[in-house]
From TrEMBL:
<feature type="active site" description="Proton acceptor">
    <location>
        <position position="327"/>
    </location>
</feature>
<comment type="similarity">
    <text>Belongs to the histidinol dehydrogenase family.</text>
</comment>
<feature type="binding site">
    <location>
        <position position="415"/>
    </location>
    <ligand>
        <name>substrate</name>
    </ligand>
</feature>
<feature type="binding site">
    <location>
        <position position="420"/>
    </location>
    <ligand>
        <name>substrate</name>
    </ligand>
</feature>
<feature type="binding site">
    <location>
        <position position="262"/>
    </location>
    <ligand>
        <name>Zn(2+)</name>
    </ligand>
</feature>
<feature type="binding site">
    <location>
        <position position="129"/>
    </location>
    <ligand>
        <name>NAD(+)</name>
    </ligand>
</feature>
<feature type="binding site">
    <location>
        <position position="262"/>
    </location>
    <ligand>
        <name>substrate</name>
    </ligand>
</feature>
<dbReference type="InterPro" id="IPR012131">
    <property type="entry name" value="Hstdl_DH"/>
</dbReference>
<feature type="active site" description="Proton acceptor">
    <location>
        <position position="328"/>
    </location>
</feature>
<keyword id="KW-0028">Amino-acid biosynthesis</keyword>
<feature type="binding site">
    <location>
        <position position="259"/>
    </location>
    <ligand>
        <name>Zn(2+)</name>
    </ligand>
</feature>
<feature type="binding site">
    <location>
        <position position="328"/>
    </location>
    <ligand>
        <name>substrate</name>
    </ligand>
</feature>
<keyword id="KW-0479">Metal-binding</keyword>
<comment type="function">
    <text>Catalyzes the sequential NAD-dependent oxidations of L-histidinol to L-histidinaldehyde and then to L-histidine.</text>
</comment>
<keyword id="KW-0368">Histidine biosynthesis</keyword>
<dbReference type="GO" id="GO:0004399">
    <property type="term" value="F:histidinol dehydrogenase activity"/>
</dbReference>
<keyword id="KW-0520">NAD</keyword>
Length: 432
């Protein structure tokens, strides 16, 4: 893994490299995605099933596209009971964390007859996309579904690609049932996003689409935004570790590799004030690569987007972390809580040598659907807030409005909106 001295040039080159991973850079796929979306919008089920056969090699019909209760029961028979037990423990932690995010409507009433407030309403129907293909992620099912359930969403619809026999991975089905999914459809890719955004004869239109996917899914979500809401346009996974000389190089190396194994576009970066630690981490990485099952993927990821940067000061390391705004940020220093107070931009922050990133991926409770590609500068992790909407409440008595009506009329006339002014004025015209 390359070791570089951190300076303005290396930081600029790093940021340029990371930007290449953004879904916004893959414009050559946009035409194909638009074609799929438009065809499903017009032809509905016909196009949806044709694309499923083309891309997933599975023949589906309106009668078989929906996962049945029998298929879910069959999945439970195939899944290791120990995994079911772990899923249930994870659900308890995730639910406990997200229940603290729940909001309530509120109203303020004043003696003059003024009532102001905010009404919280859960979304009616939400679509959850769950990837298939190279890897299966039941943990992502939990992270997407549980906040929606806590928010009070009326119907949670899940879509996920089938295998050639038209079956869905048993682990995914068990996680979906345990988390509280209402209905599951065996479709994936951009065509599934189109179905959730526009609706077909078999799949109802949703109000919002959440969940990660490949580049086609990411671009499809971006394209349908406006027809429906989306959580974000997710990019490849990434981790940044801030460490000083007190860090355990074996732990640091293991944590960097935990994200590099996702895919060839994943990014793993160490920023440290210790050249000795940098060199030891590089050696540990090479040792791990001799035994890890996804070593080929990891090596490609590290060759393209893996960096060890050595900074002169911890402030310089923190500034770099804030500029990169990583999805996952680990702080392995003598006083990680002190460094944490200086971090402005990160999706999730892990403090200390026993809070490694996979703890957040699977079990601790905070959501692992996080902003990527620098969007942690303005986006937050998926939460209960993503599954509600807010309505403002305004009520004035005649007496309350009478005190301010001339001010409102004056303001409206200053904007030359005389009908606005008149709407207030007519309520007191008998006094003129």
């Amino acid at each position: 893994m390359r070791i570089q001295k951190l300076n303005d040039v290396s930081r600029r080159n790093l940021l340029e490299d990371l930007l290449k991973r953004s879904p916004n850079q893959y414009r050559e796929y946009e035409g194909k995605v638009e074609e799929i979306l438009e065809r499903v919008r017009i032809e509905k089920d016909k196009a949806l099933f044709a694309y499923t056969e083309q891309f997933d090699h599975a023949h589906l019909t309106a009668k078989t596209v929906k996962v049945t209760d029998e298929e879910i029961e069959e999945a439970y028979e195939k899944v290791d009971p120990n995994l079911v037990d772990v899923i249930r423990k994870a659900i308890a932690n995730i639910r406990s964390y997200h229940e603290k995010q729940k909001r309530n409507s509120w109203f303020d009433s004043n003696p003059d007859g003024t009532i102001l407030g905010q009404k919280i309403t859960p979304l009616h129907r939400v679509g959850v996309y769950v990837p298939g293909g190279k890897a299966v992620y039941p943990s992502s099912v939990l992270m997407n579904v549980i906040p929606a359930s806590i928010a009070g969403v009326d119907e949670i619809v899940m879509v996920t690609p089938p295998d050639r026999e038209g079956k869905v991975n048993p682990n995914t089905l068990v996680a979906a049932r345990e988390a509280g999914v209402d209905v599951i459809y065996k479709v994936g890719g951009a065509q599934a996003i189109a179905a959730l955004a526009y609706g077909t004869e078999s799949i109802p239109k949703t109000d919002k689409i959440v969940g990660p996917g490949n580049i086609y899914v990411a671009l499809a979500k971006k394209a349908v935004y406006g027809h429906v809401s989306i959580d974000s346009v997710a990019g490849p996974s990434e981790i940044l570790v801030i460490a000083d000389e007190s860090a355990n190089p074996r732990y640091v190396a293991a944590d960097l590799l935990s994200q590099a194994e996702h895919d060839e576009l994943a990014s793993a970066i160490l920023v440290t004030t210790s050249m000795e630690l940098a060199e030891k981490v590089s050696v540990e990485i090479e040792q791990f690569l001799k035994t890890l099952s996804r070593a080929d993927i990891i090596r490609k990821s590290l060759d393209q987007y893996g960096y060890i940067l050595v900074s002169d000061t911890m402030d310089e390391a923190v500034d770099t972390a804030n500029e990169i705004a990583s999805e996952h940020l680990e702080i392995l220093t003598k006083n990680p809580f002190d460094i944490m107070t200086k971090i402005r931009n990160a999706g999730a922050i892990f403090l200390g040598e026993y809070a490694s990133e996979p703890l957040g991926d699977y079990f601790a409770g905070p959501n692992h659907i996080l902003p990527t590609n620098g969007t942690a500068k303005f986006f937050s992790p998926l939460s209960v807030d993503d599954f509600i909407k807010k309505s403002s409440i305004i009520s004035y008595s005649r007496e309350a409005l009478e005190k301010v009506h001339k001010d409102i009329e004056y303001f409206a006339e200053a904007e030359q909106l005389t009908a606005h002014a008149n709407s207030i004025r007519v309520r007191f015209e008998e006094k003129r």
